[in-house]
Specification:
heterodimer; A: alpha/beta; FAD/NAD(P)-binding domain; 3 domains; 5-stranded parallel beta sheet; 32% helix; B: Ubiquitin-like (UB roll); 5-stranded mixed beta sheet; 12% helix
């Protein structure tokens, strides 16, 4: 009987993991909350659009498309789309039991399932980290990921006069998507100074990018921005969005290396939408539930194995290095989780490529850090927790009161359960000497009480 | 301008001519296209915000991938559905939500 490997997440890492596990002879259940594989990077158009050339919006489409078709059609693969993993039960000395509901997002009456895998691979990915600024909660302010998801996933363009701001190379594909759809991108603002970016990437950055499969893509974006005469400015960012019920203008300002605002450098720009991303937050609820050791990201060994028995991790939850690196980690995790030969020559090559991916992640992090001075653009009234509308002033007052900040201000206790404000609140409190632990969400995805009452389908018969 | 759907005749992906659908939003008809999410229909239909936070502050789409829960709506009687993650179907009845009312 072959090993049963459950893979959670069907983005570049998860799909790679599934492909490699199948190749090593395992039976695979591939679980994703979306209707189609691809994750955010290869987010697919809906079937109803019946697009003749979906690859025109993507890099590495042909390889993705081949892998996708191969994996989904494989006789040893069960593909579970629209499936949310809502809990992991830890067991002694074996991978956790996986609780899944299957059906349309947040629907009532989804089917409950339980899986007991021989090995579990976590590849849930990451989402944008957005630092708060006055007006960031106005409609018309989107995460860069939202702009990208809507453009790639359903051909919706968020605006026609757009400023893109934040930090990191991900700002570039977002600009490319908007330009492709005919919008005017007024400027792309990298908050870090040119010196920080250059120092972080160090010597021969292109060599590093090519090793991690990113060079051609980055070069293409740079050329596209030049062709459309879109200014790419370093050391400047959006410090405020203003408007009557929606974002109508942004204030940008020059930043010092530590991201503190240089007074007198403010400029006002009329916009109809703003996209922001200051980096990425790994989706940690499942690794936390599985009991994996975490130091910002999930800690893995040379085999992509976490500290939890039989639990592997791949992709952006182990570090932010982009899709090719995520895929490599997935391939490695899938092969090893399935019991594949660890010393096979191609596995040695994969390990080397994975190590290059890690080096790329480290450079990326040092070239695009978040500077401590960002709090200089906050005012006491700035919303920190979007759900509960906790202001910066209220958070600071509660931090000084000695009472529980979460209970006092409700920051992080709203519908998103601190997914958005969590890292920000933790950072602001740490500066005031209050240490917080990462949010543990025993229910990893929302579930209706009624759904708990339905009987569970035992591990799917094939 | 507001968010807009790329016209199918201009779409580089060569998507086929749109199949229309219609949903009801707080009783009013709103036109969409099969394949769009409910968030996509609302945004392209000219709504930037449809939910209210505790103070009545407007909320619409922020993260677009199911993380921020800003875009919650009631769909055919089911509360708290993430509009960015739910595909729209012809005849869906969408009701907007407000946390300000909850608090009262």
């Amino acid at each position: 009987m072959s090993r049963h490997v459950v893979v959670i997440g069907a983005g570049p890492a998860g799909l790679g993991a599934a492909a490699a596990a199948l190749r090593a002879g395992a039976r695979v259940t591939l679980v994703d909350s979306a209707e189609q594989p691809g994750g955010q990077y290869h987010r697919m158009l809906p079937g109803a659009y019946d697009a003749a050339h979906p690859g025109r919006l993507h890099h590495g489409w042909d390889e993705f498309d081949r892998t996708r078709r191969h994996v989904l059609a494989h006789r040893r693969c069960d593909w579970w789309p629209e499936s949310a993993v809502w809990a992991l039960d830890r067991l002694d000395d074996r991978p956790p039991r996986v609780h899944v509901v299957r059906g349309p997002a947040d629907g009532a009456g989804r089917e409950r399932h339980v899986l007991d895998p021989d090995a579990l691979i976590l590849a849930p990915g990451a989402h944008d980290r957005v630092l708060p600024f006055p007006g960031w909660d106005l409609p018309g302010v989107f995460t860069a990921g939202a702009a990208q998801a809507l453009a790639k996933g359903e051909r919706l363009v968020i605006g026609d006069r757009v400023v893109i701001a934040g930090s990191g190379p991900f700002l570039l594909p977002v600009a490319a998507s908007l330009l492709e759809a005919g919008s005017a991108v007024l400027e792309v603002l990298e908050a870090n100074t040119a010196a920080t970016v250059a120092r972080g990437w160090g010597s021969r950055p292109w060599q590093l990018a090519s090793q991690s499969g990113k060079a051609a893509e980055l070069a293409e974006y740079t050329a596209l921005l030049a062709r459309h005469r879109v200014p790419y400015r370093t050391g400047r960012t959006v410090i405020e969005a203003r408007g009557d019920g929606r974002a109508e203008e942004v204030v940008t300002a020059r930043l010092r290396a530590d991201w503190s605002v240089v007074p007198g450098t403010e400029r006002t720009v009329a916009v109809d939408a703003v996209c922001v991303s200051h980096g990425f937050t790994p989706q940690l609820e499942l690794p936390v539930a599985a009991g994996c050791a975490i130091d910002g990201f999930v800690r893995v060994n040379d085999d992509q194995l976490t500290t939890a028995p039989g639990v592997y991790a791949a992709g952006e939850i182990t570090g932010i290095a982009g899709a090719p690196a995520a895929r490599t980690e997935g391939l490695l995790a899938g092969w090893l989780a399935a019991g594949g030969e660890p010393g096979a020559p191609e596995i040695r090559r994969l390990r080397r490529r994975r190590d290059q991916g890690r080096a790329f992640a480290a450079r990326l992090a040092s070239a695009h850090p978040i500077g401590d001075g960002w709090t200089s653009w906050l005012s006491p009234g700035t919303t920190i927790c979007r759900c509960e509308e906790t202001s910066y002033g209220a958070l600071c007052a509660a931090a000084g009161s000695g009472r529980s900040v979460r209970l006092e201000t409700r920051a992080g206790l709203g519908p998103c359960q601190a997914r958005i404000c969590g890292p920000t609140v933790a950072e602001l409190l740490a500066r005031r000497g209050i240490q917080t632990t990462p949010h543990n969400r025993p229910i990893a995805q929302p579930l209706r009480l009624g759904e708990l009452a339905y009987p569970t389908r035992k591990e799917s018969a094939r | 301008m507001s968010p807009r759907l790329v016209r199918s005749e201009d779409d580089a992906t060569g998507r086929r001519p749109d199949t229309p659908l219609e949903i009801r939003v707080d009783g009013d008809a709103m036109a969409g296209v099969q394949g769009q999410t409910i968030a996509g229909v609302l945004l392209a239909g000219g709504l930037q915000a449809w939910r209210e936070g505790p103070s009545g502050a407007p909320r619409g789409v922020f993260c677009g991938i199911g993380v921020c829960f800003d875009c919650l709506v009631t769909v055919n009687g089911e509360r708290d559905v993430r509009a960015c993650r739910r595909r729209a179907h012809d005849g869906d009845v969408v009701t907007t939500q407000s946390r300000a009312q909850e608090a009262r």
